[in-house]
Amino acid sequence: MSVLITGGCGLVGSHVAYELVDEYKFDNIILLDVSFPKNPLVLKYLGKKINFVYGNILDYGKLLEVIKKYEVKGIIHTVAFVDYKFIVSNPFLSVLTNVNGTLNVLELARIYDLKIVFTSSGAVYGQIEGCAKEDLPIKPTDIYGMTKAAGEMMGEQYANTYGIDFVTTRLYFLYGYGLSQTVSTIEEAFRPPVHPISVLYLFVTKALKNEKLVIDKGGDSELDYTYIKDAAHGVVLAYLAKKPPHKIYNISSGKSYTLKYLAQIINEYVGYDVIDIGSGHVEGWPKRAKYLDISLASKELGYRPKYGLENGVKEYMTLLKNEMKS
Asked: What are the tens digits of pLDDT across the range 247-274?
């Protein structure tokens, strides 16, 4: 069965490709991306069960060529600009890619009757307290969330009008091997608006270099961090589901974790208190849902996180440590 993964060399796409091949024995995965494969999990099967095609999501002709050549039966659409600072600095390119790219995928699905799984985000919920359930109204409060909301609504209307099989997975604050981050100082990571993944990345990389971090306050700030392998697993289950009862599913760890607990996990991994963070809340921390309710995905897709924060962070640190040695 041929599956096209747009953005297939990115964090989500590469892990989805690996799970499809390694766990579900798919033998014809096509990765479309403007970056070449780097993830060792993908390279393991490259040229055998995974094929790479260099192409831009905005190039409809290229997409059409791939659909025909590989006889694609479904698309897992992960392409998007996600970095807040990049999007704010480059709104036209970001909106064009995130929205028109999705439109290209939907048109191909309409013409060739393809199943689509769209990777959206908990950002569509906007600023809310507590947890977020799928039946809440979407009220994005930033450009990125708006583009994801637009993609969801376009997909819903294409499904209603043309009968295509379109499923949305709402992911949340992803981390793991292949994460693209460059922060190296407390000032960078904690400069408002704060991105929680930048904070996690700073903690992890500093700990692996045995560079102690002392942060006066912020340990009580919390969020639903999701390990990339858990997120990929949820996306794959959504793709494999045959006409699921609902069309939108939250995919996350389903729990809220404080920065103090994150620091504790990292300290245990390295064997001493390399991260010292005080109580209180981080200025500029996102006013998002503390966690996503994943009960619907659990009931209808059979989704259950395999890692959680502790196991996810420890595996991530081990992979980074091995990379630093090589």
From this structure: 999 999 999 999 999 999 999 999 999 9
Structure confidence at residue 174 as a pLDDT band (50, 70, 90): very high
What pLDDT was estimated at residue 85? 85
- 49 and 25 in a single domain? The answer is yes
Give φ, ψ of 262 to 5 degrees.
-60, -45
Pair 138, 124: CB distance under 8 Å: yes
CA distances to 220, 279, 282, 287 from 216, in Å: 12, 8, 10, 21
Question: Coil, strand, or helix at residue 249?
Answer: strand
36 token code pair: 């070449």
Q: Residue 114 maps to which CATH number? A: 3.40.50.720
Q: For residue 82, give the 3-state DSSP assignment.
A: coil
Is residue 207 domain-resident? Answer: yes
pLDDT at position 301 is: 98
Q: To 10 degrees, what angle do helices 60-70 and 101-112 make? A: 40
C-alpha dihedral (174, 179, 181, 182), degrees to nearest 10: 150
